Structures are given as C-alpha cells and as structure tokens.
Amino acid sequence: MAEQPTPADPTELTEAEASEQKQVRLGKRKRMLEEGVNPYPVSLPITHSIPEVVAAHPVAELEPGAETGDVVALAGRVIHVRNTGKLCFAALQAGGGERIQLMLSQANVGEDALQRWKELVDLGDHVFAKGEVVVSKRGELSIMVDEWQMASKALRPLPNLHSELNEETRVRARYLDLITREAARQTVRTRALTNASLRDTFAKHGFLEVETPMLQVMHGGAAARPFATHSNAFDTELYLRIAPELYLKRAVVGGLERVFEINRNFRNEGADSTHSPEFAMLEAYEAYGDYNSIADLTQELIQNAAMAVAGSHVVTWHDGTQFDLGGDWDRLSMYPSLSDAAGVKITPETPIEELAALAEKAGVEVNAKTATPGKYVEELWEHFVKEHLERPTFVMDFPLDTSPLTANHREIPGVVEKWDLYVRGFELATGYSELVDPVEQRARFVEQAKLAGRGDDEAMPLDEEFLAALEHAMPPSGGMGMGIDRLLMTLTGLGIRETVLFPLVK
C-alpha cells in the first residue's frame, strides 16, 4: 500500500491519518516476523559507509552508465523511493546527510526480492544493500543492488522533505530536524568543532580540564536562583549547580594553577532567546593572571573557535550575514560609558536616591527592597548602553556591591576588576581578577546574606567550606566564564534553542 504525502509538521496529521499509516507499517512488521525475518536485526554484514563510497567514487570523474567493479555493502535511511516495473530506485541517506542511490533491478535481485521491496519498504526505513558501485544513465552515483535486507522498520512516516519543519517541531522532535535539515546537522558539527577548538587552545596554554560536582550542598559562584532537590541516600537537600566557580577555585588552592571545565549549569530562572534553564558553561582559572590576561585569553579562545568553524575570523550566520570577530576588541569602562549615554555623571559615589530617580525617569524597573547602588548602575547601563554594542566589547570595572567574588580595583574605589564581554547586544562571557582575601570574602558573603534576608533569592549564601579552602591561600588569579550555547549563537547567528541539541521545552 503506497503512502500518501505527509505535511511538513507530522503533528499536523489527524489522529486517524497518523493511526492509519502506523497500522499499515505495523502490518508489514508483522508479516516479516511471520515469515521468519527480523525487521530489527542486531547486526548486518556492512563493509562500507555511504560517505566512504561517495568519497571513493567522485561522480564528476565517472561517465554516465559507468561500472566500477567495486562491490560494497552498506546501510542507510530511505528518504526517497520510486517503484516502477522491473527497476526500482531509492535514495539512501547516512546520518551526516550524505546520500547514494539504490537501483534494484529484477534481473539482479530476482522477482521475489523486488516484489518484497515494493511491498515492505517505506520512507524512513533503514535498509541494508549489497552490490556494485555504478553510475546511472542520468549520472547519479548508485549501487546496483544484488541483495537487500530490512535494517530497521520505521513505524511512523517522515515529514515532507520538500517543506521546512516549523520551529516548534524542530525543537520538540530534534531527531526529525536532524534527518530532514542539513543546517541542523551542521549546527551539531559546529558545536563539536567549537568545543574541540576550546580544548586545544587551553592545552596550548597549559590548562588542565577537570570536573566538579553538579549536585552541591550549597549553591554559589553566581547570582542566580538554583534548582533544589533531595538526596534519599544522604537525606539532605541538594542544589543543581549554578556555576562551578567555587570548586574550581578549590582546585587552584590545591595547586592546579590553570584549570578549566566545560559542563552543564542549571538556573531556575526565565527562558528566552538568550537564556535557558539548563546550559553548557565554560569556566577557567589562571593563577597569577588577572582580568586583563584572562580577557586576552578569552578573545583568543573565541577567535580560534571561529577559525575552526569558518576558516576565518569572519563568520557567516545562518541568514547570510557576515560578522567580524577579528582584531583587538574594544574595552570600555562601565561608569564613564553610562555617564556619556545617560547625559549625567555617574560614579561609585553617586547616592542611591539619585540612581533610583534616574531609573524611574528612564522607565527602568529595579526591586527597591533588594536594590543596591551597583544594581541600579548595572540596570541603567543595560538600558542606556548595552543594545548599542554590536562588535565584541569588554565592558570593564563593575560596581563592588554586585560582584562578591571579585577583587577590588587597584586604582578606582568602589569598583571591582570585572568585565563582561558583549557581542551583538548580549553578554557572552564574564571575567575577573579573583578575590583571594578570605577575610574580605567573608565580609562580602555576609553582605550577600543580608540581601537574601531582604528577599533577594539570587544572593549567595555564606559558604564556610569554600572560605576554609581560601584560608589556605589562593594565589592571585584571573577567572572567566562563558556560555557555550551563547558562543554558538555568536558563531552562527542562531537563537539559543537552535544551538542546543535537545533544549528544554514545555
């Protein structure tokens, strides 16, 4: 029974249509089992992959109708079939999107095998085929099949390969996106190349890759709301980590002077085009570095990733836009840039009342119960300055009261040596000269605890175990954190849900 064309979004099928197509395929599965044929064999006598065959036989160098004499056995997913008389055609696709044509002639496979092909094979099935590599009369690289076998029977139809999936289907059924869309497969490859490049750059600078706990007794390392859970084994409340920072710093205290980690973080906050509750994060710490040296390293990491992905510091986004990540990136200071944009001089000494009045006038909402002068400054800066930063820019020197893990600025009172890297108007990375004075760190934690008491659920708790480690002396260090998903956004121009292979959706 021939299948009817399916719409671009398989969820648009009525229940009756979906059930009918599935029942037809289930019937074919049942028939094969009754005939003693396993529609899901454990192994197959494969000798070659589709990409290997395509690479070994450049069709441009072969004449139409050519016979190579090479016999191969391969498997792939059927994404097109044309059954006509005594000669049937099918397109077989590998996981990476490479394709090859199958030609099933009654003279080669026999009448029974050809009839079984027509009756049992549907779009989406994985099939095994063995035969000679040839070129069809139309010039397509093909396998003249001698024998075939079902490799895995698909019980649901593929979407229409000539229409694009809608975004909702792409993120909810990423497997369909990967089957049908080369851009989806390329995004996965880009992510793999990016991570490999990051690791290579760190290795060249003598960094060690380490792993730190994702389940933590106390959350910390960032201003964020955590996910909470319960351990039955320990009968205690635990948190999914919001950042690996406090454990990586313990490693530096222990003598691992250059460390990094690429792993998952979890923040129980909103989701939008640049935020996801679960996200991949890179953090790194360099003993005897500072926020300037770690900014240099961050620029190198990103530019090397661009070279790995695009072969150039100029990357091409999915919509064709070119974006230049080359050269030395601008560095501007938060307070002077805010003053220039707002038309009012703002310094670390500006009273909170003046900042609140300016925020109200500008329509910037800040929770007055938990607000600090620094919180007003950061919110005002985002309102007046952030959206105008298109090229990569290090925004330097943040308010002290919003950065409890950062060293005081060496020259400017009330400011810490912290930067945020902005690209295309969103924050890509952050870096610090780390606060390594345990007495000052304890005082900062106490202030955070006061904010928590006033209702700030992003404030950090007082972490005695971390303070104990810090009291054993951590060398002066530079540290940085960067979202891997956002780095992919920078390299591809995609939204965050497109850069994550399986994003969290309702």
TrEMBL record:
Keyword Transmembrane attached: no
Stored PROSITE patterns: AA_TRNA_LIGASE_II
Enzyme class of the recorded protein, top EC level: ligase
Primary localisation category: cytoplasm
Record: residues binding Mg(2+) 1: D420, E427
One Gene Ontology term of the molecular function aspect: lysine-tRNA ligase activity
InterPro entries reported in the protein's UniProt record: Aa-tRNA-synt_II, aa-tRNA-synth_II, aa-tRNA-synth_II/BPL/LPL, Lys-tRNA-ligase_II, Lys-tRNA-ligase_II_N, Lys-tRNA-synth_II_C, NA-bd_OB-fold, NA-bd_OB_tRNA
Reactions catalysed: tRNA(Lys) + L-lysine + ATP = L-lysyl-tRNA(Lys) + AMP + diphosphate
CDD domains xrefs: LysRS_N
Subcellular location(s) per record: Cytoplasm
Matches recorded under Gene3D superfamilies: Bira Bifunctional Protein, Domain 2, Nucleic acid-binding proteins
Pfam families per record: tRNA-synt_2 (PF00152), tRNA_anti-codon (PF01336)
Record domain Aminoacyl-transfer RNA synthetases class-II family profile: where: 196-503
UniProt keywords, alphabetically: Aminoacyl-tRNA synthetase, ATP-binding, Cytoplasm, Ligase, Magnesium, Metal-binding, Nucleotide-binding, Protein biosynthesis
Co-factor: note: Binds 3 Mg(2+) ions per subunit.
Annotated residues for binding of Mg(2+) 2: E427
Required co-factors: Mg(2+)
Region (Disordered), start-end ranges: 1-25
The keyword Repeat is annotated on this UniProt entry: no
EC numbers on record: 6.1.1.6
Regions that span the bilayer: none
Subunit structure: Homodimer.
Family affiliation: Belongs to the class-II aminoacyl-tRNA synthetase family.
PANTHER family: LYSINE--TRNA LIGASE, CHLOROPLASTIC_MITOCHONDRIAL (PTHR42918:SF15), LYSYL-TRNA SYNTHETASE (PTHR42918)
Name of protein: Lysine--tRNA ligase
Source taxonomy: Bacteria, Bacillati, Actinomycetota, Actinomycetes, Micrococcales
